[in-house]
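Input record (one chain):
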Amino acid sequence: MNALVKSEGKPSADLTAGQSGADAKQYLTFTLGGEMFSINILCIKEIIWYSSLTEVPMMPACIRGVINLRGAVVPVMDLSARFGKPSTPVTKSSCIVIIEIETNTEGERQNMGVVVDAVQAVLEIPASEIEPAPTFGSKIRSDFIEGIGKVNGKFVILLNVNRVLSTQEIGAMGQAAASADLTLTHEGA
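The corresponding structure, as predicted from the sequence alone:
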């Protein structure tokens, strides 16, 4: 899980001028439903094996539950469900990637876990090998995509973690689900 793989893209002008490759960023790649995704390594706190979760009532469908991470309660999201797909089945290679996100404009930060099928590698992708997010044809919302990286002839979807893991949007989904449940309960009475 700790291999660093360099993309074999064309070197940028900065690299050929003798600079250290400051335009390249490192991304953790992982599979989810047979597709390759990645997250900027600077957002990632740690990777743990999938273990039992505590389910929390009235949460949005994309939140699987919470885990106890060294005394801290960390919510765990099912990325497949967040992308509008069926829930990810847990296998022996399933992992929870712990990501630190900004929760508001004041810079408050929170840890959140995401369930992935398997962690692949850490890739170094030069900015010259990253294309903007497509505006059509994607199986997930375009605002979830930071860009598309080209690595050794293959494409890797670079996720925008602040959009995918938006606590405000997920909270609104939870409130909408709770309101719908309450309405159904009152109508059935």
